[in-house]
Amino acid sequence: xxxxxxxxxxxxxxxxxxxxxxxxxxxxxxxxxxxxxxxxxxxxxxxxxxxxxxxxxxxxxxxxxxxxxxxxxxxxxxxxxxxxxxxxxxxxxxxxxxxxxxxxxxxxxxxxxxxxxxxxxxxxxxxxxxxxxxxxxxxxxxxxxxxxxxxxxxxxxxxxxxxxxxxxxxxxxxxxxxxxxxxxxxxxxxxxxxxxxxxxxxxxxxxxxxxxxxxxxxxxxxxxxxxxxxxxxxxxxxxxxxxxxxxxxxxxxxxxxxxxxxxxxxxxxxxxxxxxxxxxxxxxxxxxxx
Length: 290
Description:
It is built from 14 helices and no strands. By secondary structure, the protein is mostly helical. The chain folds into 2 domains: 4-198, no CATH class; 242-289, no CATH class. Helix 4 (55-78) runs parallel beside helix 11 and helix 6 packs antiparallel against helix 7 (134-150).
């Protein structure tokens, strides 16, 4: 897999998302902000988190959360795990995400949001609800609804968005210079054929932070950033459990170890010829790993 483009994108994405989250942080915490009137509980959670972890850690944490979600949604769009694409257009020649185009035609998946949310989206798109960026606001509501829908089957990635994470979601998601436009450009249909793309993006995203923290005398305030950012997450677990773990379980079919793995996928049944070839490959790889 060609990784140069992925590296440039992931490193740019971290810087861009941090800047956008920082901007949103200043906006929502302003004395007369709409968030203080409409999202009182989320503001309290945000202020508490800022007190406990500090501004830099909250910015880093939220930027990383949205990076993970956007990349996962793009991967799911390309591989048609989403019935309606969330961050991708329906056709390559189009630009608008399919879920927004559908909503503008009056269609929103029953799984995406409650009736109150859907009503707000329709009112924004029809102009009944005043907004300086109606399409952008409607689209952000759709993305949040989609993430919450996937919480049912993938809670390790799509935690329910009911707190300050939603407040600090980047504003610009629809323009040609948005983070989603760059996500689509980097995560092409070809690269998304292999789940390894997610692992590469994770490694490249943290690379600049890792270089800044590792290899120097680490200050006490750097320790939370290093431990939170570099703790193996679902991406690393998925790759390990379905690569090295797959080899182990195929060579040791009676092992109970796989029952402890959250993200392990049982391999498909193979023909005798293919199974024989796999047995040779497994033994070779296990020898190499010793």
